[in-house]
Fold this protein.
Amino acid sequence: MLSELSELFRYRDLLFQLVARDLKVRYKNSVLGFFWSLINPLVQVATITIVVRYIMRVEIPNYSAYLLVAYLPWMFFQMSLMDASQSVLMHHDLLKKVYFPREVLPLSMVVANLIHFLLALVVFFIYLLVLRAPIVATWWLVPFLIAIEFLLVAGLALFVSCLNVFYEDIKYIVSVVLNILFYLTPIIYMSEMVYNRLHAAGRDLLFSLYLLNPLNAIVVAFRKTLLPPYSVPPGRSTPFNLQDLPLDYRLLAIAAAVSVLVAVFGYLYFNSRKWSFAEQV
Amino acid sequence: MDNAIELQGLGKAFKLWHGRPNTLKSLALSFRRPKPEELWALKGIDLAVARGETLAVIGLNGSGKSTLLGVIGRIYRPTCGKVVVRGRISALLELGAGFHPDLTGIENIYLNGAILGIKTRDMKAKVDEIVAFAELQRFIDTPIKAYSKGMVMRLGFAVAVQVNPDVLLVDEVLAVGDEAFQAKCYGKIGEFQQAGKTIVFVSHDLDAVRRVASRAVWLDQGAVRADGPTDGVVEAYASRVGRDIGKGGTDGGRADGPGVA
């Protein structure tokens, strides 16, 4: 694996060129260009906020901010996997003609989406500054969170892009699983709501299992490191008896370990099959 | 050892699926399906190419020439046997690999160069030379979807010759284009030869083979049929192919070498 990594490092310029190509081509013929990568999550967040606030009548102060801060890492996760699952198959002709470390194809997709994610986070930061929202003391954790999520996404991207070469069902499975995962991850709701339900039912273990999904821990950590704890104003009651729990560093450490493992095994699996891609006619 | 390339007992088999299981459903049912047929594109190849030598590979379509380049160029892993290549290797199997129609000429130069393994830093130094060589100064900031076929080809070639390997694999890509373009290509090959590079060259153009290579290998159904000085091998091949054409091409192979003597 080390020799594969050093070969990948030798081809880092190719990785950057592919990322540049993706960023240039994606919005090449659109007027708003890069802004589309910001408009999409904002419209989603606005829509969900309207549904939750005014139709379902769940009142959490500043709900849209809590939603957005979870939606951005989710979008990085989702878009990367969707793009990556097709990446190797799309370049099939190239694989038959040129030698290069095959992993640059899915990884370039992950990096391109990472750049979108980082820009969106910058915009989010500016938004917080404009609103004069209190800066949470733990914001310095954010780079670690990004790194953890990057490893998780990269490992999964290598895995699905490889499988998709052999079984084209994978891209459909990926989109179905992503759909389910969106609701299994505390994005439109708070993880405390699940905790309250399961805790009341005496099923703390189930809650731990629920948080073992590394994406859960990551999304929750993004929320808690970037935004102050939510508080329900006195006199108001939410249907969920919402109370913010502190960030659980143990769970975050487990998520980091799982992400590293996913990255390592994803890469090992990809490497074990990458030289047969060109032979799949 | 002063061999740039050594092949020992090299064999390459491809799996030929008759209805291959490319969906999970058919995978689950695959115990009922016949096993894939093994198709040996190369078998028992022993070959050594000395440093600085230019070797031509000739043979009918389907004789394994491209597979041989693919195996030497690390695109395919050998099924059995050994491949040793000493030094940096570059394979020019296609011009303009990875060109994107929506990117400009200049953007595609960097992309294509990176795909061929050239550092972006090195490309920066060469970009003017590439544009001049491709004669595309006026169009270099235009997306290449507006280019003619010939322009795309010139651009691809101009980037491709920037590779600086010890071992160069060249497919028939050079045989396309008009006379002037071909002359330019063979001129570049001559430069590579003078620089002491090892070249493996696959072509159907027997005249070009005679001009460029000192040694030729005739591949027939995945095995070496003849190996030696170019003139002898080319002659044997041409007369054999000529006879097959006379008989009406019984083996299903097609002799499309224009230079059949």
